[in-house]
Amino acid sequence: MAVVLVTGGAGYIGSHTCKQLAAAGHTPVTYDSLEHGHRDAVRWGPLVVGNLCDRARLSATLEEYRPACVLHFAAYIDVGGSVRDPLRFYENNVGGSLTLLQAMKSHGLDKIVFSSTCAVYGTPVRLPLDEDHPKAPANPYGSSKWMVECLLRDAGAAHGLRSVALRYFNACGADQDGEIGESHSPETHALPLAIFAAMGRIPAFHVFGTDYPTPDGTAIRDYIHVEDLADAHVRALHYLLNGGESTSINLGTGRGTSVRELVDAVARVGARDVPVTQSPRRDGDVPELVAQPDRAAHLLGWKARHTDFDAIVRSAWRWHSRQTKGG
Fold first, then answer.
1. CATH value at residue 247
2. Distances (CA, A) of 292 to 132, 249, 303
């Protein structure tokens, strides 16, 4: 059983992964600035409050806890924000990751699971997207994640670092026990925003782009339940602890859902209308992203278990309903 440093462990996917790490017998040590994370989401191990760019704080944390591996979630994730202020994204996502890798090298820590993204691929030239698809990010967020993957590759060649870059498709849903869920400020993800519109917490859900070359004109994404993502991280940890070589792995279901289909699902689950406003396409968005997830099955023995999209929506609806009621 391992001590694991989890950067960004107070965030959405990080906190779900900490819960599963603890269930597997590991000790997750969360390192989080709490700029976007939540203190009350850290329930399965100690919390160190610190910025990823703070080399001294990171080094002291590594010295105190001596983790066997790092699970690296900490990053800015808003695609639109990355287009408006790319330098801020590069400073945080790339600069913070570089500082982390330098600290790991100084402490002889040679294993890391990295939270990457399907945004490294950019506009697909073929679908579904496999890991060997050309990398041409369409926005600075995707570019920042690809740059970190390049850092991992080069640190592996030069210093023996072993890494697994997990390229998520669209994370969604909430913990089935209702303990943690998706809470960003500001919220930018489609599923919670559609739920907020249905609940009357926001005036309307914005559909960004209705003229894409897709069957219903709206963008298509591969939505994957957060508990499946957390499970993949635990498996990637075990893969590295058992001597696995560096690799990159897609995490998705292999099935796409359009924005209109998402809105319809929220309406069905909530048994109420979702007010919608149609808006122009956003800079940096692409028409369709769907995973080819075979490598995850081959290397990690992983496959998405939550494949009923209405059930995924239901898990998120339950959690957001509890937050609205204050409990």
1. 3.40.50.720
2. 10, 10, 11
